[in-house]
Amino acid sequence: MSAPVVQPLERARAEAAVDAVFAGLSPRSRYLRFHAPVPHLSDAVRARLVDIDGARHAAVVAEVDGGGPIGIAQVFGPGHGTADVAVAVVDAWHRRGVGRRLLTAVAALAEQIGYTELRGAILPENAAMLGLARSVLPWARPRFDGEVVLFSAPIGPAAWTVTHEDLLADLR
């Protein structure tokens, strides 16, 4: 199979991409992505995932020639400031660099549309996603809230601005 291509996902192709990626996730991967057992997407969750407008909610998709979508990364938010980020890669493509390419691309897309910070919630047992977030966003500030690891990472020019909080974190 050819190398995956990562590109912005348009609304017209979102339903097919979301369905294909979800179908390629094992029950364990679905649990790690949605933080609960999810045998199928509810209408409400599916509607939210496919409601891509390119301003508040944007996404990138990884596809292989002849194989269709193999991963999606999305950002959700008010269109500026902080956005939530989520990544899913079909099981057959785990540990092949697809998640890294998706997270890198969606962070760049988020910056383009006006976001200055990405945040996410990762289950502590999702070592692969924790490692991915650390490697793509090494300046992220993770913290455990008792259930999940919450992280926030400035992007764009905000990523290179040293704050009082950053200085204090370095002293710990």
How do the helices and strands line up, and which of them pair or pack?
Blueprint: E1 5-8, H1 11-23, H2 27-34, H3 43-50, E2 57-64, E3 68-76, E4 81-89, H4 98-112, E5 115-122, H5 127-136, E6 141-144, E7 149-154, H6 164-171
Helix pairs in contact: 4-5
Overview of this protein structure:
The protein has a single domain, classed as Aminopeptidase (3-Layer(aba) Sandwich). The protein is 36% helix and 28% strand. It has six helices and seven strands, in the order βαααβββαβαββα. It has a seven-stranded mixed sheet with strand order 1-2-3-4-5-7-6, sandwiched between helices. The longest helix is centred in the middle third of the chain and has 15 residues, at 98-112. The radius of gyration is 16 Å and the shape is globular.
Quick rundown:
The chain is of the alpha+beta class and 172 residues long.
The rounded Rg comes to 16 Å
Unreliable spans: none
CATH topology, what is it called? Aminopeptidase
Class by alpha and beta content:
alpha+beta
Order of helices and strands: EHHHEEEHEHEEH
Judging from the principal axes of the Cα atoms, what is the shape?
globular
- N- and C-termini, Cα separation: 47 Å
Considering DSSP H and I runs of 4 or more, what fraction of the residues is helical? 25-40%
Examine the secondary-structure arrangement and name the CATH architecture.
3-Layer(aba) Sandwich
The average pLDDT value, as a whole number, equals 92
Strand content: 25-35%
Major sheet: size, sense and barrel closure?
7 strands, mixed
Number of helical segments? 6
- The largest sheet has its strands arranged as 1-2-3-4-5-7-6
Tally of structural domains: 1
* Total beta strands: 7
CATH superfamily, by name, is Gcn5-related N-acetyltransferase (GNAT)
CATH C-level class: Alpha Beta
